[in-house]
From TrEMBL, chain A:
One Pfam family per UniProt: Radial_spoke
Protein name: Radial spoke head protein 9 homolog
The organism of origin for this protein: Cricetulus griseus
InterPro entries: Radial_spoke, RSP9
Family: Belongs to the flagellar radial spoke RSP9 family.
Highest taxon listed in the record's lineage: Eukaryota
Automatic annotation (TrEMBL), chain B:
Composition-biased stretches (Basic and acidic residues): 9-20, 44-54
Any GO CC annotation of this UniProt entry: radial spoke head 2
Pfam family, one: Radial_spoke
Protein known as: Radial spoke head 4 homolog A (Chlamydomonas)
Encoding gene, per UniProt annotation: Rsph4a
Compositional bias per record (Acidic residues), positions renumbered to this chain: 375-385, 393-403, 564-583, 677-687, 702-716
């Protein structure tokens, strides 16, 4: 599904049943001849919507470190004693994790893994995101609210009140990835 | 008296004074002879009859009681009350027996006062009582009931008859009841003879329990805590808070309890001068809330109100909120106050909250400002970098020696920026990072900056002096880039309902190279347009900011004219003139007040999206216009009033990805003509032909040998 939706560019129409048309050349064998034929692929907007939502979630959904923990049995649980991030940690990207299965964790060197706590650090942190600098961290009202904005998917905003259990993220935007990010940093 | 020693328990007590009195009586009675004691005890009884719960009140030290009792308490005191005791405390005897048994069988370590076990039964009774007291004082949960099976029923019985003022139904209360009960029981112990008989029976279990408790009470050498206290604290916390699935988080709770110990003590290293960033910004913003002049008398105030250039930001914010756009009431109000500060400190004719541009480290709050006529601030000297380059290169060309070829490159004429109050520089923009921070004036924008800004796409960092590293190199730093983007956004997205603005009547028809009219004024006869009309058709909205030509200006500037003027100053331009086009086509753009329906579509979507703020209540709905070309630009109108706003990252939308422009071709430094062009070496055939031709000429000049030789030499 992701491959299909990658063919579609531009804004969403607002109508889930809208069909995008994408023409591509395909080699078609007819008998002895091989020639290119234009094939029109139709992709529905609702497919695209589902795929985009999934991509955004997988790419930039984040939670603070310590909000979830892993039990020895493998189950991940909400940490009920999560008291929020400390003031010294909120400006660091390493205090936030991607809210998805860890992709990069196994590739870490042993030295890096030695400092990790296996019950808390079982997800990818934002520190190693490529390109570097694709997150903007800002504080509101002095230190009372930290806001992270993704530059890869502009519109994704994550907030957290330090030393409390409040955190969350929301996406408000056009649903398009910012492929120009490396030029813009 | 010893019993007034304030070994207070942390728990609540009932009428401690009265209990003290009671004990005083008992203590006073103790050293005296039994005869005296009896009436004392008897006196006590009526009191105890009426208010038996007094005996349950704690309040003084067990130790003190124990100490005073040991030597002083005599048998008669105890024996005097037995006849009365059963009436009030029918189940006391079993308790006493059990207590005494325990005491007799196992010496409690914590029994104070150095009581010897071989003391009299009374002492034992006291021992047991105090020991029991000691032990139960540490028990805070009902789970310890097993240690005192008889005490439980005793407690409830005791409370039953004499419960004039009900105790709080806490374990601790009950515990103290138990304590008091034991005290009183031991005070009036009737079962002297029975005591000795039950001593040896439950010894093993009791010993084990006492040992276990003693171990739990042992103090840690590192932290000064003991496990007993800690466990009781943890269990108390759990029972108070009753979290679900406590077993899963028990370790964390234990850790929290230990941490709480540290917070109780006063931190001697308290940092009193620590300024949290939250306080810092609050201090800055507090200044906003203070009124500037205190001596505002009535006429001044009216004057101020009449001339105020401050926009009603809150009203606009209200309309934008219906459209789902805005910063939130808190921040908007602070921006409002910051704008007030701006208008108070600068001579401003008109001011508008333009919007907010997000940045990587900090954001920008932008205010669009028009200074009062004649009070324009002096321009900051900002030489265009292109101009400098141009001057520098021509100077370098002139200063070189004759040997080196002079560079005949002439940089393209720098297009001068527009005057203030015209075109792109019509308004002056102030920015600040946060309301409360000082406002910074952005410099005027030059056409070169706009042209370059169109070619690059960079995020703003939030610092005005940050360098913009890009290709093509941007002539300026972030403040210039910001200003250029603001100019582009204003030109592209500032729209108003048709008819709101009109061209001035006095202005003559201008069909010159200047392009369309560049000024407008408010239409006093504007009657408003129906909101539904505004939404349905885009032709009801017009741009009221001039279009920026590809040149980077709003009014066309012909660089050739300037060139001819400068020709007299520079000498080497004669050759160059031939290469430059003699005529540059004038750039035109849509005139002012063009309806936005003329805006080009982006691929297949219109460049504006309209909607009503509410479909359910159309009579109070407002029309919302959202730009698709500049995501984040909004325009709203309720028919009569309109407002523009921008909140976003400050970039244009494009479907294709950004591609940096390619490098320019290598400059042709000299014209390539036949005299410079290197000739190809002749091929063999050509050489042969040449030779034969030569020999033919040699033969023809055979007579003259000298010339032949010379020619041959020359021909080589």
């Amino acid at each position: 599904m992701a491959m299909q939706t990658a063919l579609v560019n531009g804004r969403f129409m607002g109508d889930p049943s809208h069909e995008y048309e994408h023409t591509e050349l395909q080699k078609v064998n007819e008998g002895e001849k091989v020639f290119d034929e234009e094939v029109v692929v139709q992709i529905k907007e609702e497919t695209r919507l589902v795929s985009i939502v999934d991509q955004i979630d997988k790419a930039v959904a984040i939670i603070p470190r310590g909000a979830l923990f892993k039990t020895p049995f493998g189950a991940t649980q909400v940490n009920r004693t999560f008291e929020g991030l400390h003031l010294s940690e909120i400006r660091k990207l390493s205090s936030y994790f991607h809210f998805r299965e860890a992709i990069d964790l196994k590739n870490k060197t042993l030295l890096e893994k030695a400092d990790l706590d296996p019950s808390l650090d079982f997800m990818d942190s934002l520190e190693y995101d490529i390109p570097k600098g694709s997150w903007s961290i800002q504080m509101e009202r002095g230190n009372s609210l930290v806001v992270l904005r993704s530059l890869l998917w502009p519109g994704l905003t994550f907030y957290h009140t330090p030393r409390t259990k409040n955190y969350g993220y929301i996406y408000v935007g056009t649903g398009e990835k910012n492929m120009d990010l490396p030029f813009m940093l | 008296m010893e019993n007034s020693t304030p070994l207070n328990q942390e728990k609540e007590t009932q009428e401690p004074k009265e209990a003290e009195e009671l004990w005083e009586g008992a203590a006073a009675a103790s050293p005296q002879d039994p005869g005296f004691l009896a009436p004392e005890c008897l006196e006590e009884e009526p009191r105890s009859d009426t208010e038996p719960h007094r005996r349950m009140s704690p309040s003084w030290g067990r130790q003190s009681r124990a100490s005073l009792s040991l030597e002083d308490l005599t048998g008669p005191l105890v024996s005097s009350s037995p006849p009365l005791l059963p009436s009030v405390f029918p189940s006391t005897p079993p308790l006493i027996a059990s207590l005494q048994d325990r005491v007799a069988s196992s010496p409690a370590e914590r029994v104070p006062g150095g009581i010897s076990d071989s003391a009299t039964p009374h002492s034992d009774a006291w021992d047991s009582a105090s020991a029991a007291r000691q032990i139960t004082s540490h028990y805070m949960s009902q789970s310890e009931e097993s240690a005192f099976p008889q005490s439980q029923p005793l407690q409830f019985d005791l409370r039953g008859p004499g419960d004039a003022s009900p105790d709080k139904p806490k374990v601790k209360g009950l515990r103290f009841d138990l304590l008091q009960e034991e005290d009183s029981n031991s005070n009036c112990d009737p079962d002297q003879p029975e005591f000795g008989a039950n001593e040896a029976a439950p010894s093993m279990l009791e010993v084990a329990i006492q040992n276990a408790k003693a171990y739990l009470l042992s103090t840690s050498s590192q932290s000064g805590l003991n496990l007993y206290d800690h466990l009781s604290n943890v269990l108390t916390k759990i029972l108070d808070e009753r979290p679900a699935d406590a077993v899963d988080i028990i370790e964390n709770i234990s850790k929290d309890v230990k941490m709480a110990n540290f917070n109780k003590k006063l931190d001697t290293l308290h940092n009193e001068n620590e300024m949290l960033p939250a306080y810092e910004i609050a201090e800055k913003q507090k200044a906003l809330f203070l009124q500037g002049q205190v001596e505002a008398t009535d006429p001044e105030l009216e004057e101020e109100i009449a001339e105020s250039s401050l926009p009603n930001v809150m009203e606009s914010a209200y309309y934008f909120e219906q459209a789902g756009v805005g910063l939130g009431t808190d921040e908007t109000y602070r921006v409002f106050l910051a704008l007030k500060q701006l208008t108070d400190t600068h001579p401003i004719q008109r001011c508008r909250f333009w919007g907010k541009i997000l940045g990587l480290e900090m954001n920008y709050i932008v205010a669009e400002v028009e200074f009062r006529a004649g009070e324009d601030e002096e321009e900051v000297e900002e030489e265009g970098v292109a101009e400098e380059r141009d001057a520098g290169e021509s100077e370098a060309g002139e200063g070189e020696e004759d040997e080196l070829p002079k560079s005949e490159y002439k940089a393209p004429q720098a297009i001068p920026k527009e005057e203030n109050r015209t075109g792109t520089n019509k308004y002056v923009y102030f920015v600040c990072n946060e309301p409360g921070r000082p406002w910074m004036k952005l410099p005027s924008v030059t056409p070169a900056q706009i042209v370059t800004a169109r070619k690059i796409k960079k995020f703003f960092t939030g610092r005005l002096d940050a360098a913009i590293i890009s290709y093509p190199p941007f002539p300026g730093n972030e403040s210039n880039y910001l200003r250029a983007q603001i100019a582009r956004i204003s030109a592209g997205t500032h729209v108003s309902p048709l008819g709101f603005y009109q061209f001035g009547e006095e202005e003559g028809e201008e069909e010159e190279m200047e392009g369309g009219r560049d000024s407008y004024e408010e239409n006093p006869d504007f009657e408003g347009i129906q909101v539904t009309d505004l939404v349905e058709s885009l032709s009801n909205w017009v741009h009221h900011v001039q279009y920026i030509l590809p040149q980077g200006r709003c009014t066309w500037f012909n660089p050739i004219q300037k060139n001819e003027e400068e020709e007299e100053e520079e000498d080497e331009d004669k050759e160059e003139k031939g290469e430059e086009p003699d005529y540059i086509e004038q750039e035109v753009g849509p005139p002012l007040l063009t309806p936005i329906s003329e805006d080009l579509d982006i691929q297949n979507i219109p460049s504006w999206t309209t909607r009503l703020s509410s479909n359910l209540i159309p009579q109070y709905a407002i029309a919302v216009l959202r730009s698709n070309l500049w995501p984040g630009a909004y325009a709203i109108s309720n028919g009569k009033k309109f407002e523009n706003f921008y909140i976003g990252w400050g970039h244009k939308y494009s479907v294709e990805n950004y591609t940096p422009p390619g490098l320019p071709p290598v400059y042709q430094e000299y014209p390539s003509g036949p005299e410079i062009t290197e000739m190809d070496d002749p091929s063999v055939d050509e050489e042969q032909a040449f030779r034969t031709a030569q020999e033919a000429s040699v033969l023809s000049a055979d007579e003259n040998e000298e010339t032949e030789d010379e020619e041959e030499d020359d021909d080589d």
